């Protein structure tokens, strides 16, 4: 094709665009109207937790006026990838997963809850175990929950690190895939210790997973610097985004049954910046975990 022909076609295209631009201005992009894909944290198999997460999804449907489809990715990093790639529009994410995803530009945090000042994780052994404290884990095995779990990995690993124990050198570890699965591995004798979110242990007791006389608490971690977040895909339409930011928090905080979902916290911040997640980065560094390696 000759150069003059190419130039002519480009000029014609630019002229057409100019004509369209002069006919009343640019029309606003239509608001999204299809279902919202909402992802909940993985390993949410406990009946009460499932009901609470469904209530969050229903609340999103209320404030946006759109149908909400709930998804349950296999692990914490799968939630991050689903939001980043656009398969999920809005997600409820753990603190460290949010920090990682935000640092990588994968998600936009819309709401973040402040953490309660109680131990984030509780580490448990069988009642007949010789383990009496964290130092006794040298040469033994622990069940973590998931590489992206705050209470099931980052906080317990930080606790072990501050007690001079390095994963792979002083003890071995495995990922169970869920909080209940980690506890079962400990109770069955597959591992020596399991650490789980302090806030959900009462549910496991009520469900009969943790029966009196079958286990002992040997350690508790520090509180989490930051609580859970509701995040969105960076390309989420503005109407939905604004509805979640401005209307959703009040609805969620008015429902006392949802307290365990947000760690009991009633204090939150909308549209948080990078500085909010800096304390999590420091904990990760202390634990010897490189967040970039978890992409």
From TrEMBL:
Keywords: Signal
PANTHER family membership: PHOSPHONATES-BINDING PERIPLASMIC PROTEIN
Organism: Pseudonocardia saturnea
Gene3D superfamilies cross-referenced by the UniProt entry: Periplasmic binding protein-like II
Top-level division of the source organism's lineage: Bacteria
Listed Pfam families: Phosphonate-bd
Family recorded in the similarity comment: Belongs to the phosphate/phosphite/phosphonate binding protein family.
Protein name: Phosphonate transport system substrate-binding protein
Signal peptide region: 1-21
